[in-house]
Every structure is written in C-alpha cells, then in structure tokens.
Amino acid sequence: MTKYKLIDLFCGAGGLSAGFIKDQFCGRYESVLAIDNDAAAVATYNANFGDRCLPVNIEDWLASHDVPQADVVIGGPPCQGFSLLNRKREGDARRALWEPYMDIVMLSGATAFVMENVPGLLKSEEFLDIQHRATSLGFRLLAPAVLNMADYGVPQTRRRAIIVGIKESAFELRPQEFPPQPTHQAPGVTGHLPPWRTVKEFIGDLKPPKGTQIRDEAPPYNLHFGRTPTETSLQRYAAVPPGGNRFDLQKNRPDITPACWLNKKSGGTDLFGRLWWDRPSVTIRTEFFKPEKGRYLHPDQDRPITHREAARLMTFPDSFVFKGSKIEIARQIGNAVPPAFAAVIARFVCRLLDQRKQYGETTEQEESRAVA
Q1: What's the pLDDT tens digit per position in 141-169?
Q2: What does the alpha-carbon distance between residue 310 and residue 268 come to, in Å, rounded to a whole number?
Q3: CATH number at residue 257
Q4: For the chain, how many structural domains are there in total?
C-alpha cells in the first residue's frame, strides 16, 4: 500500500504521529519531519520514529530552511492561549502559532491537514483567522467538531476540537462525512455500539507500584512507580470512597481536610477524586500524579495513578519509549493526543488521500514555493 508522507508540528512525544505511523494503529504514513521545542519530547519522538524530529523554534527554523514535500500536515499549536483556564491572556503570543503551521501546510504541498486543539478554539476569533487562511490557500474545512475520545475507544472522556482541511483542487467536490462514526457509546445510550472502554480494561492487570523512581526494567513496570506521601496524605486518600472526591474527604475527615476546602462548599467534583473501575478516566493532564489537581486517585488503592497507568489510559502501548525525567515524561503524557484516537483520524484522512485525483502535484508544489 502507498505510504503517505507526514509532517507533525508541535508534535510533543508523538501521540498523534503514533496513531498515523505505528502498524498497530494505522500504519499508512511515514514521517518526513517533526518539530517541537521541548528537548525531552523530541528525544522521545526520535526514540520511537527515527531521527525525524528537530528541537527548534518553528518560526526560527522556517526562516532558514526548506520545507520537505508531504501529503499531510498534522499537529496542535499550543492551546494554552485558547484555554478557558486562561481567559485573561488575550495577548498570549501562543495564539498566533497556527500561522507558521499554515505556512508549512502551504510550503509542503500537502493536500490535507489535521489540527487538534482545546474545544475553545472553535469559538475564538483565531479560528475565523485560521479558516480564512485555509480558504485562501485553497483548502476546505470538513465541519470542524469537538469530539469526545471515549466515543472512539479511548478509556478517557477527553474532548478536543479537530479540524481537517483538504485541498479542493486535489479532490472531487463531493460531500465528505466528518467526523468519523463513533465506535463506542456511553453506557445506557440506545444503540448497537459497545459501551465506552473502562479504566479496568487498561490498568486492572498491573500489580501495585514499587519504588519512587523510573526503574531499569522492561515495561510496563519501568514507569510504574509511586510517590512518598505523608501520613496525612495517606489518611486523606483512605477517606475517599470509590468514585468519591474532596467533598467525601470533608465529610469523612474534616480534621485533615485543607482549610481552603473546608471554606469552599461548592466547586468541581473531580478534585481529590477517585477513578471508577467501570468507567473511562477523566482527562489525563500533565500533573495526574497529584490528586489535588483532579480525579487521579487509583480506583481501590490509596495512591494516585502512576506514569504507566496514565500512559495506558492515553492508549500508549507499553512498548512506546519515553525519555526524560519523571516530570518531563508526565508532561509528555498529559499533553499528548491518545494514539488510538489519532488512528481514527489517520484512517479517515487515509481514505481521503486514497481518493485524490491524479493531478499535477509537481506543478502544485512549484506554485506553493512561488507563493512563499
């Protein structure tokens, strides 16, 4: 089968690339370039995909290098500027990083691109700018949507905006169905699909963790280590029942509940929460090892989830190699796109690329360079 050339921008550890490139997911693409400015993430990417990733600032690199030709560009420009957690950061320069992304789409001669971001992107002024730029380059956006990854086989209720653009001159102009049809559905919903995948399916076989450091042994236990909580923290963990949260801690052990929580009678129900065995996880973020940051307590052990458990809930196979310190690896895991979800998008785009018209790609690429 034809393998399509892939460029991954703001690639991080390579969760999105894994879904496109690895045979256990899609396997119809080959990497020709990846870029990220996080050195540890670049080391991880190169350990898994070969030396394709550059540890550079994208705009600096673009100013002095030729862009390789590719069939598709993927990536997620940093999302902090769009995040609801950063409502006041109107001048955040990271909002503009979609511009070099689109420059590379143009210069590579790609006929498709995939952009992943937080849901707030689709309601931002920047989305209108992205849409305008894509249209000016001859691309059509295929009904951008916010998708719940639990609907596509990921054991996590992670919601992200997905934008797919196709070069109109390369395709027959017929209706395209986006997003792809879900493969799973929420329990209790009428339908023929299997229910959402659960935490137990992905981490239920792991033994209790040992030690507090990355271990020199074969996966999965190399990244299956714990922390050194205080006695008070251990008592707090024990006070949270299955599926419980900080409000259960307040009720069961007010004597060891932080004062800031005792004085706050409302708020999010995931803080200091315990995962359920029979449900998907909440969104795995970069500080999943801190229960005070979210619902990250193990379903029935009095501890937060480990790096390996978080990686599995993100659908990274145990064979995926992570490089860096504990903090750097946690950041890579939490910032990634789950490979199993990326594969759904990869297969969708692959079907589109398989249907491309046989047109003068060399001419198109020459025009791209001329416009630049």
Answers
A1: 999 999 999 999 999 999 999 999 999 99
A2: 21
A3: 3.90.120
A4: 2
